[in-house]
Amino acid sequence: MKNLLITTVFLLSFCVTAIAQCVRSGSFEGGPRENIYPISGTGKIEFSVGETAQVIFDSDFRTVQGITLLTFLSTDGKYDQGVDLEVSNNQPLESDNGNPNMGNAITGMKSFNIPDGVSINDYQYIILQCVSANVTWGTVALGNPAGSECNTILATPKNELENISVYPNPASAVLNIQNPLFSTSEIRIFDTLGNVVLQQEAQSEAVQIDTNSLSGGLYLVQVQSGVKSTTLPVVIK
Fold it and tell me: Does the N-terminal or the C-terminal CB of the chain have fewer CB atoms within 10 Å?
C-alpha cells in the first residue's frame, strides 16, 4: 500500500510538472528525399516561466544520419540560411552509435535551448536541415499554444519597453533605433548563439548603429532601460 501511494504521488507530481508549461507541438513531415532519409516523431517548443525555452524532439523521434544535421526555427517552413534561427549551437545531431556514416539511426529525445528574447509565437516551424547538402530532412508545423502557463507566457510582460522601433529590417549598413519615450538605455545586439556582438549606450531617442562589422544573418536587438527591456529580431544583409 505504501509503495502504491508513493508511486501515485510520483505520477501526479510528474503530470503536474509535465503540463506546467506552454507548448506548441506537431509531427515531423519528411523532406523531398524522405524515401532515402526517413523521419518521424514529435517536435515541439516548450516555454516555462523562469526557465530557458527549448526546442524538443520527443522520445518517439527517429531519423537517419546526414551530413551536418542542424535544427532551426522558421517562420515559413522553408530553410533560409541567415534568416532562420539556429538553435543547435552549430552542433550537428549524432547517430545513436556515434558513427558519422550516412544512414545510421538517430533516435530518442533531443533538446536545444532557444535564445532569450524569442516569444512562443515568433516562429511557426521547426526545421531539421542537412546544411552541407542543402537538403531539408524534415519539418514540424507548430500547433496552437497549450498548457497551464500559456496565459502567463502570452501576456505582455510588465517590464517590456513599449513603442521601440528598429528599422530598416532587413538592414545593410545602418540600423536605426527609435525610443519615443526616451530614457538613457543600453543597446545590445546578439547573434543566434546568444553572443553579444555589438553594444552601445543610447543618449537620445533616435540612435543609428553602424552594422558594417556584422555578417549577414538574423540577430536580436535588445534595448534596456533600468529594469525594463524589449528584444526585437532584425536581419542584416
Answer: N
